[in-house]
């Protein structure tokens, strides 16, 4: 039905993604997406619904105590979930409603699997720690999805304030890095000669190693948020069940703490940027805020 190649699929990947996706999911997801693109008429929304169905199977397997099966089904559910975006970008068949469906499908899968795993283990062992672990997973997952949009609002307000203080005539380092991600901060320059504003100057001063780490990850198509929801879900719903029932609570607690720490690091960076906006700035001067 199509003449797509693996290179076409690879070109349809996100420019950067989680390390779990890049190294442990995309090698399979890209090859499955190639088969789907060339030999089926399945739409991205159809793949999302399939992902939700497989995720529901994972939740049932967890509830029944089939932990290894549940882990495999969760991995496959996420793999299919990674395919819908590739097909949408490759064929141009994505829809605005698909964004909502993908988002809600992810949340339903996490909640269902958390309940299946936590309450399933509780009914078999009588240990309430599994219930607390399940609730903790759900709360942390919801927190990061609330935290993200709010941090985005603060970042946008900070940029708007910087623009107004600079008379609207400035360029942001983060925008330059977005177009040239392999460039180190110290080498950034505005092509049009505008004043260059680095809202992360204080963060870079406190953590000088960070930019080298960022470039190292960029070259491997990995984003810097190394413990995101994806890694959290993989640890709780794939790694822990494969290790056995004993691993569920400690793995959920440990990776949950890491996830929270990384979310707080994002808050910290936004706070540093927000407090660095100058009250005034000389015209034409290169400002590293």
From TrEMBL:
<feature type="transmembrane region" description="Helical">
    <location>
        <begin position="20"/>
        <end position="38"/>
    </location>
</feature>
<feature type="transmembrane region" description="Helical">
    <location>
        <begin position="246"/>
        <end position="268"/>
    </location>
</feature>
<comment type="similarity">
    <text>Belongs to the CDP-alcohol phosphatidyltransferase class-I family.</text>
</comment>
<dbReference type="InterPro" id="IPR000462">
    <property type="entry name" value="CDP-OH_P_trans"/>
</dbReference>
<dbReference type="InterPro" id="IPR048254">
    <property type="entry name" value="CDP_ALCOHOL_P_TRANSF_CS"/>
</dbReference>
<keyword id="KW-0808">Transferase</keyword>
<dbReference type="InterPro" id="IPR043130">
    <property type="entry name" value="CDP-OH_PTrfase_TM_dom"/>
</dbReference>
<keyword id="KW-1133">Transmembrane helix</keyword>
<feature type="transmembrane region" description="Helical">
    <location>
        <begin position="50"/>
        <end position="76"/>
    </location>
</feature>
<protein>
    <submittedName>
        <fullName>CDP-alcohol phosphatidyltransferase family protein</fullName>
    </submittedName>
</protein>
<dbReference type="GO" id="GO:0008654">
    <property type="term" value="P:phospholipid biosynthetic process"/>
</dbReference>
<keyword id="KW-0812">Transmembrane</keyword>
<feature type="transmembrane region" description="Helical">
    <location>
        <begin position="222"/>
        <end position="240"/>
    </location>
</feature>
<keyword id="KW-0472">Membrane</keyword>
<dbReference type="Pfam" id="PF01066">
    <property type="entry name" value="CDP-OH_P_transf"/>
</dbReference>
<dbReference type="GO" id="GO:0016780">
    <property type="term" value="F:phosphotransferase activity, for other substituted phosphate groups"/>
</dbReference>
<dbReference type="GO" id="GO:0016020">
    <property type="term" value="C:membrane"/>
</dbReference>
